[in-house]
Amino acid sequence: MEEEPTEERISFVAIDHSNFSDAIALKRPEDEDYVAPVLYSLAEAWLYRAEGSVNPFLACLDGKAIAFVMTHTQRSSRTLDIWRLLIPPESTNRGFGTRILKKLIAESRRSGAYDALELSYVPGNALAEHVYDKMGFIPTGDLDDGEIIMRLTL
Q1: What are phi and psi for residue 57, nearest 5 degrees?
Q2: How far apart are CA 67 and CA 97, in angstroms?
Q3: Are 154 and 114 in contact (CB under 8 A)?
Q4: pLDDT-based confidence at 34, cuts 50/70/90?
Q5: Do the strands 64-74 and 54-61 form a parallel or antiparallel pair, or are they unpaired?
Q6: CA–CA distance from 125 to each of 28, 61, 122, 146 (Å)?
């Protein structure tokens, strides 16, 4: 029987030349267009490189990439935006999204650098809404590019 994947077994790994191919191999489910593809996200991160505020990375379980994550730091408001959380089909429905969010929340609290986390989802993405709500994120009432913004105060 496979051991339950816990937050402790999940690591966040910067994308570099050694794992770039692993990162771009992560694809969103074919029938889902809620999350931008990894290559688009990496190109977007490149646009913000001078600011140093965007951080794309892999979530790995025991060294194997299970998801792509990209965050954006809003220093003035001490908020960490979770811009992307792409979980490929082979990793869906295994609780990884929840565990990755728990780890992001715990690391953000531990760092003391943030007062809140924010993320957004496309209306109609019931799974994302359910997971974010379960994790304690609350709708702000604002929209970003048509997406519903949720916030978790740390």
Answers
A1: -155, 170
A2: 8
A3: yes
A4: confident
A5: antiparallel
A6: 14, 25, 6, 13
DSSP symbol at 133: H
pTM of structure: 0.89
For the CA atoms of the chain, what is the radius of gyration?
A: 15
Q: Identify the DSSP state of 139.
A: E
The candidate with the shortest Cα–Cα distance to 55, out of 66, 65, 41, is: 41
Q: Give CA–CA dist 74/123, Å, rounded.
A: 24
Amino acid at site 93? N
Write the CA distances from 39 to 10, 25, 45, 49, 140, integer angstroms.
23, 9, 10, 15, 29
Reported as a single tens digit per residue, the pLDDT across 127-149 is 889 999 999 999 999 999 999 99
**Confidence at residue 1, expressed as pLDDT on a 0 to 100 scale:** 42
**Each residue of 91-115: b (16+ CB within 10 Å) or e?**
bbeeebbebbbebbbeebeeeeebe
